[in-house]
Amino acid sequence: MKIENEHSLGRRIRKNAISYAMLLPFMLCFFVFTVLPVLAAIALSFTDFNMLQTPHFIGIENYTRLFSDDIFLIAFRNTMLLAFLCGPLSYIFSFLMAWLINEMPKPLRVLMTIIFYAPSVSANVYFIWTYLFSGDSYGIVNATLMNLGILRSPVLWLTNPNTNLAIVMVVQLWLSLGVSFLAFIAGFQGVDPTMYEAGAIDGVKNRFQELWYITIPNMKQMLLFGAVMQIAGSFSCGAVSQDLTGGYQSVNYSTMTMLNYITDYGTVRYEMGYACCIGVILFILIVLSKKLIFRILKW
Amino acid sequence: MKGIRLLACVMAVLTVLAAAPLSAAAENVPGTAPSSVADETPLETEPGTEAAGAAPEDSGESEGEPQGGEGGDAGDAGESEESGIPTYEDYTFEHFDTGVIAEPLILATSELSPDSENCIAMPFTVTDEGYYVLSFEYRYAVSGNKNIRYDVLIDGALPFQEAAAFTLPRMWTNENEITEDSNGDDVSPKQVEAQIWRAYTLYDKEGYYADPLLFYLMPGAHTLTVVMSAGDAQLKNVTLSSLEAPPTYRAYLSDHGGERYDGDPVVVQGEAATYKSEMYIIPQNDITSPLNQPYSPAKIKLNTLGGANWKLRGETAVWEIENVPQAGLYRLGIRFRQNVYEGVSAHRKLYINGQVPFEEAAALSFPYSPEWQTLTLSDGEEPLYVYLEKGDNEIALEAVLGDSAEIARELQESVLELNTIYRDVIMITGSSPDDYRDYSIDEQIPSLAGDLEKAGKRLAEIAEEITAIYGSDSTLASKLDGIVAQMQKVTQKPSSIAQSGVLSTFKSNISTIGSWIGQFTEQPLQIDRMEFFGESGTAPQAKANFAQSVAHSVRRFIASFTEDYSTMGSVEGGGRSITVWVQSGRDQVNVIKQLITSDFTPKTGIGVNLELVTGAIIEATLAGQGPDIGLSRPVADPVNFAMRGALYDLSSFDDYEQVAQNFVPGADIPFTYRGGVYALPETMTYQMMFCRTDILEELGLEVPKTWDELLTLVYPIVSRNNMDIGIGNMNQIAAMNASNIFTNLLYQMGGQIYNDDLTATALNTQVAYDAFRRAVEMYRDYLFPQEYDAMSRFRTGEMPILLADYAMYNVFSISIPELDGLWEMYPIPGVLKEDGTVDNSQAATETASVMFQAIEDPQAGWEFLKWWVSDDVQADFGARIEAVLGSGGRYATANTDAVEQLPWRETQLSALREQMDSLIFVEQPPGSYFTSRAINSAFMTSVLNSENPTEQLLYWSEQIDLELARKTEEFSR
pTM for the complete prediction? Predict the structure, then answer.
């Protein structure tokens, strides 16, 4: 929507005063708790704010430092791996799952929906993985593999830099299945059955053709929504890597994501300026990747 | 040295024997021990410790005897072993009861105080041969916190092993009546010691025997010596008499004629107990039932006594009542709750005016239920009456094991037996056997089949006993049946135990059975009130009826809107006030509030607004909404806040130096920034080495004092027997300001983490490389377990030596009761110095109390901080928090005098003292958070990826230096 001038906007607001009044509570909250912090973060990213003293303006020093920061590169790499490996994988996987489950009879479908959606609603349930991947020789995975003779000595799954990122990715995948899954289920339900009849008459031969030519074009909105949520989620994941493997304290920063890096600078080093600067970069990355998604999915 | 003191004591006895007049004994004995050690145990009685061999605890099997400890003491231990002190079981079996004892022997009637060796020796002459029971009255002449431990020697020697290490409980009373605070909530009264004379009969420590301990005496002259760990108790009316069971009810009635009372009941409130044998048996609040007296749906009323805090054998509560209307026979109803251990009963012995009235009262059984219940004295059908005098009477309830005693003893023996089998097996197969390999285990351990059968049979017997007492549908009996069935399977085919699945089931069964011992040895009971009621009266109502419950719930619900349970409330003072934020648990904050109400505010007139806040302190300070004082802050906070100008420099107060004397020297190092000190230490934790002395003895090993001994002498034998040594989980490396293998080695070898002016690390030195390489090698080459669960491995004996936080002592002693006396804690291994001494330095970690710069009344804040870290308050806090959380929650105070006042035993204290002498504190320069993660990365990469440790350390220490320099620069702007 393009606004022509102040005057016409004011007039239009007066005309729809009731609607705007209804919008106001949300807009206020949105402005105070979302827009304002984002603006503040952008502003702070040009300062040396340390949480206790008055911030000083230091220009783009934070940004120039960021681009020569080796550790930021590790965080960037890990985030990209998570976003572009976990994101699409989980997207495709949850789509296939939604499709399969949609074909099931109703009681089973409800049950499976709960099973798939449960991990993403119950926060912190991923701690179960620390139990599975305990480094103790009596930990479940270790004990099983040692009993089978595959391992000879216990592996510190969550500490070892060779394994921990992989585990974080698996857990992230498991957690994120639910997000777009529900949207897809809704999408499948929303396709008009007469379309399939028409398709059958017009010569659709099998289920895959049905999926490709009828279902997918019909649920474009849901696919787009799922993709956007997935990407945003993948970029801003950090809780799993922090809690399971130490995040910014992991060995050689092996599982540190950009979000962990922000936490590190914000709450450990109290360098809010630099933390905000990383945040701004992350923000830009997410916006850009959303544009990319829109471009890709707009066929 | 302690052995020498034992000898001195024995000598003293002999001197007494020779020069008969008892009063002269004190002068006659040459004071061999210097006065400074007078408060230490003259005879080390702790089983499994230094001179433990002198007094090993009964474990039911001779091989379970703890090993005599280190160095010079081993000789003494050996001696005692040769002298062959029998166990109590053997002792009573050896001597058949022959004589009938006509007259009790009165050894002394006047007050006796211990001599300079803390001994009281009493000569006496026996005419009737037979078994005697020892009873006496005692009183503490000097008030204190710690119970005296004592041994009973007959003719200068322990008659049996269990005659050592008894405890004389101090008696405690409420300092004042229960009062209300400004909110209308009850304030828990402070517990103060009551130095009263108390009658006492000697029972075994564990409570495994229902009867008192028996001493077998032949005719002739003897000496009874009581050897105490400290000299502040007195004895009188020391008597040896024959064993007399309480009378039958019929006999009791005929002795206590009198009318049956009929009138209003005499109500005794549980929380009003006059004396308690432990300071943690305190009035408790219970709001689950509207029938509790006193009752309030909204306010906190202290209306019950005991609960999970009143459970150990011998713990006694005494009620003095004054208002009995007439002498006569009363019925007794006790309203109680036993909701801790499902399916088993708690037991209490009832005393009326110092006597167990009749045999039924020797072990009253309080069954389990989640609800409140009422127990009325009866023999099953007919009510039983007790006789009360008109006016003053004294009622006492003592925790006893009752018919659980036998089961507990059997379970303990069973677990030891099973653990021995388990260890024998893993010595051959390792803890995770290879299923595809034939270990021919029955040939390797010829006794295996027999052992298994014996153990299985014992378990089956225990199951039967439990079924007989609690019925076959009790959950415990059915679980035990399952284990018995599994045991039978293994017994039929002993070789199957070498399969990983069977072995791990076997191991988890041992843990399960071990955890049950607590259910039988612990007797938790909560008492609301006792009512002595008349013939036609009724016992107190136990459960609220429907209408009462509904009314209760509705009033509670309404109160939830009117009462503010979230803020801890403020204590009003005379105008001055401070705000204190505590980052801790609700229980802790409640106790702090009690202390402030009863002590700080009355003394200083400073009001305190106490809040329980976790996190957000820095944000709050930023917004100008922060507190004046922050308690329980993590160790890194003070310098972190201080370098941002948020904290008040405590060293600017004149008496700071004096306050700092409360702590181990150097405890202020982590809180020091540019010459200022920004916090006072609150808690302090460090590691100790826990050893299974029974296993070390079995393997013929000494407790290692140095890493070299550990690696060259202990490690080969332990690992050959498929056992492990736990030097700490490897991820502890990530805490550089706490005890872990690398920091400890570094400091022990003479290195340090930072250079002297804290501008960079001191890690690119040869000593640091050596320490780092050694630490890496332990995990990488010696293959010490990198991650493990200490409790289960210590229990089974898979890990007979492990390093753990010293607080684990209490966790172990509560959770592994079956190993009582078979393990001990020692200072951690060290490095042998050139002068022959061992440096066992380690890094201690602390929590801190801080004062914020924004405080308006710094003097008031400083008063509060000084008060909070003072000896008495820290000790009182420790005692109270232990009363709430149990001994597993023992407070790790940083105040060195307060540590001594916590109920540690003397042997443990001396081990702790030894370790406390060599604690180091790591500095916290700006940027120190980076050190931990850098060392962690260097260490993990070296161990897990087999990188060169020296290169890793070099690389990462450079990274640390960069970060330190960056931070230093930031803060010098």
Answer: 0.76
